[in-house]
Amino acid sequence: MAELAIGIDLGTSNSCVAIARSGSVEVLPNPFGEGISASVVAFKEDSAVQVGNAARANVIHDPMSTVSSAKRLIGRFFFSEEVKKAQAICSYKIVEGPNHSVRIQVRDEQFSLPEISAMVLREMKSIAEEQLGQEVRKAVITVPAYFNDNQRQATKDAGRIAGLEVLRLLNEPTAAALAYGFGRGLSQRVAVYDLGGGTFDISILEIGRDVFEVLSTCGDTYLGGDDFDDRLIDLLADEFVSQFGINLRGDPFAFEKLKLGAENAKKGLSQDDEVEVRIPDITTDAEGNNLTLQRVVTIQEFTALVMDLIQRSFKVCDEALQQAGLVARDLDGVILVGGPTRLPLVRDAVAQYFQQEPKADVDPDEVVALGAAIHANSLIGGVEEGDAFLLDVTPLSLRIGVAGGLAETVIERNTPVPIEQARTFTTYQDFQESVQIKIYQGESRQAEENELLGQFEFGGFRKARRGEVQIDVTFEINADGLVNVTARDQETGQEATTAIALSSGLSPEEMEKILEASPAERVQTMDAPNEAVTQPADELVLAEPSTAGDAHQPAIDPNEETGRDLKVDLQQRDSGETPLSEETEPSDTDDIESLEVDDDLFEQAGVDLTDLTDSDDLEG
Amino acid sequence: MAPLAEAEIRALADLLDELDYYQLLEIDPSAQGSQIKQAYYAASRRYHPDANRLLEGEISDHVHAISKRITEAYQVLRDPRRRRAYDAMRNEGGGARIQLVDAAARADKQARDQHEGTTPNGRRFFSLARLDVERGDKDAAIRNVKMAMTFEPKNTHFKAMLVELRGA
Lengths: 620, 168
Description:
Chain A is an alpha+beta fold. Chain A is 25% helix and 29% strand.
């Protein structure tokens, strides 16, 4: 049987799976004939696990054991704002795991976010297998364009746990544009306005005859349809308090009913100018009388509640247009993606902002999965006439931590990928023997305002005065948008490399355990050697630079495999290359260019114009 | 598109560090916007990882390295400021490659030099002229700008200031 690869849109609220083959592309419906399935996982008393729309219906019966919107938490640190926000509105228990990761506790069992997402992915995989009548092992999974490396890594882990070989993590707006323009021979500039359940992305693309080039992408991973619901929930809950003196937020059962009521009201408002929310017996008063929540919500009222959220999305659009060097009237089309864009108030506001009506022939719920399927098909060699080629960008600037708590840009956001860049650094102190390399993503000069992707210690330098040791640090972003960093001592040729993932939420050992626990689900071809994992992430501490004579970092064992989680793999190499270092150009404005090593500092030598790193393959 | 021949990939990978961005994209150094874009598309079609999924091992690494360099070349040449910085570096005998943030920093420096002057005396008289403007002494300002221009006759920013002062 011909090999097939599916496209999966793993959404915050809903997921969708599609297949492209022999020139056609279609959504594969679930056994109930529904094109989209809720990204909800319900853990039943009898230890059965239910996924999809049925699981969603379970929430009012067992809110503590029903997990929804997991995508909002994937790849996040426990201390992040989003986790606090989720704790306030989710009835299920969100707890802290090792290394600041997030875990979801259901009864006495804890799950990482990749595991939860894997359950949704596995459901989509089995929907596809049922429809196709054959096993499916390969998939393209979509992610919000604005997802950072941690979120991408965690999503890729989820795919592996689900027994899928992830051919590519594809940005959702790019997928949508692909589905829109596929096979139509267009030559257009389009904006994809993607307002999902939990995230907002805007991408500006240039669609050529057979090329889809992303010119810019911007986003807000804290903005989505869920926020619209929250506004309604607050309105209804506050009024209930003033009416009956009872806070529905304190009762998970009542609160879940309220959430469903609010969501239905929102959906109703995409058809009608007013809806009535009526939830009988939502709770009981002190005397045990049943209380009913009843409230009419008008479209004007709802608009007033959410208009600031929509305006926030347009600020992001401004940025994307500016980064693409375009203005709204340069665009030939606007594509709407995501359930919330069905709301007339969103459509109208978008039409006004872009000064044109959005395309009407695109299904906002299915378009992303369709695009993913088209790309999946082309990646397994199903190349057909008019096959499109994708050129995407990295959404966030990649930075390295330098002295003074700052983070210096190495690769600017909206740089096309794949890309590789190199910087040369040197030691800051006499006889310094190691350095802590910290990698960030984000747009702030202040290191802590960015997302920390990973850190690793690099050392074993010869005894030398400050400035004498030269270290090339190479930063790579691959076509999946995943980041890889390599450090190399120019003199000894010693090298350390790490694919960075700090908060996938799973330590390498846990990941191994999970994969072993379900051998049947395990994909035969495991990914790149970088993903082999040996050291638990929670052993990672900020390494003090060693000052004693011992030149070896204790954390590093050259015999072990390269660790994905900040495990540093040292390889002795011959260093045959001679760097063609050009004179350093002193920067007038940014005088501090030192890598931070706690209190120890590490100074950047300057502009690296050598060609060392590219030709320098990482295999030993 | 026909699969790439291994020999072709090896040959290009070996040459990679010697080719400048124009050679890599196979365009003329005078090529403009759409030519650069088309060349980038054509090169990506051949060397992007998506087009070469079936390659393995060293050959796959070579293709990745080439693909990344193609992206870099495009990112420098598509942006007039970065491109100017790159061309200037090449003219000074620099290498075939420029790091993107360095290109941006060089471009900023060029712009700043234009604004403030590249010579100590040029900078000094020009800053005096600006102080004169703040005080409202137009004649003194014109004298100082003229002095600055004797050191940097080609500075367009100085010229513009002089024109403005004379017009005012």
